[in-house]
Design brief:
Layout lengths: L2 E7 L8 E4 L12 E5 L6 H12 L20 E6 L4 E6 L7 E4 L8 E4 L8 E2 L6 H5 L14 H9 L2 H11 L9 E5 L5 E7 L2 E3 L6 H14 L6 E5 L7 H14 L4 E5 L16 E7 L5 E5 L2 H11 L10 H4 L8 E4 L2 H14 L6 E2 L10 H10 L5 E5 L4 H10 L4 E4 L32 H15 L4
Parallel strand pairs: 3-13, 3-14, 7-12, 12-13, 16-17, 16-18, 18-19
Antiparallel strand pairs: 1-2, 1-4, 4-5, 5-6, 8-10, 9-10, 10-11, 14-15
Length: 463
Amino acid sequence: MMISSLSIKGLRGFATRETLALAQPQANRPGSGLTVLVGPNNGGKSTVVEAFRAITAGGTPSFTEGKRNLAAGDRVELRVELVDHSHHSLVTTSAGGSETKREPVPGVTPSILVLPSRRYFNVYFGKGSFSRDRFSHLDLPAIRSQPLNEFGYRLFETVGDDEKLRQFNEVLGRVVGPCPDWTIDQQDSGQYYLKVKSGNAFHNSDGMGEGIVSLFFIINALYDSKPDDVIVIDEPELSLHPIYQRRLARLLADYAKDRQIVYATHSPYFLPLGQVDSGMAISRVYKDADNQCRVAAVSDETKQALARLTKDANNPHVLGLDAREVFFLEDDVLLVEGQEDVVCYRRIADQLGVELPCEFFGWGVGGAEKMETIARLLHELGYQKVAGILDGDKPEVARRLSDAYPNYSFTCIPMDDVRTKPDRPARPGKQGLLDEKLTLRDDMREQVTKIFDDVRTYMKPDQ
């Protein structure tokens, strides 16, 4: 059963109730079931993941004194609303105590497969087999950093079935190519280990690298999942090369076309803004001035505006990797019109000997009229300190922005542009592959197809 929302009160930094709305998969559209959690370090993202883990844990988990927020009455209240309008709650039975109860009673514990950020297991393990459902209902550990030693039993579940192993390796191969040659082997001492071939040698999981071990956990969560399943991952990018991050992000978006996938991330590669109009949800988890965790979400209206920016062929960098870094800042963002403004204002600051105590938004917002979209995005996500500098011939834009966002600061420079520019003579037109509507010309299709085929053959001659 898919989830509509999760509310948290009293867990770690959540002194007051905060609610996270989850994206709902729509008509097999890739990315539509993605809920992406962004924000600075120590903002509360891992606590949200921990809340999911507590809800799905076996039995009635205990909340240690360090997990309970005194300002919330020294008790924890977690609640998931399901898409059928039913709910499931996990609450501490008394203030100042660790024990919990589930409501309603009796209730069916939601099945959510949760992967914490510290994804590792002992190199050597015993023999056993865990189903997906059993692995989804592990006990909540007292501390976050404990190993997931039960994962070895999930590997036995995979290698013991030829079809499951084939499916696992097929999904793994979509991220790591070629797919690693792996199995489970047993030492003479009786212990088992994950055995991976490397050239003409073999090694255990300790020699795989943390990124590949982490990836095994994620692939294991995906490969035998079913439509409508819920998967939660904390920091899927950990220890992964950027190319693997790109591939994994695409894989997760593909699975999210008919499943709910929630992940917390610090990587701009895991913000697929090109799919923002598919229905994906973006929420920022951060701490306010009172050091309390808050959850803020991007509205549907703003997501549609962002989608239009991603389709701007003249300014494709506006929401590129540099711009997406803003989602992970604590605050203090400076908006300027374009990329030369970023370059020139940095140069001006150097000439004046002034250090600006803020970060530029990427390489500019792509023009004065687009500053409102970015300002609205930052406002919805809870940023408190945002400034904008516009050219001197944009006073109306500055006034409109100041009226809409009185807590932000917008100003115009005393000249029409940041840089003096000479007159430019008219340039002759050119014919291109794409017409004025950016549609490939029919008479160019065959020739361009051959060029692309040549590139593909050169890159991957065996495919």
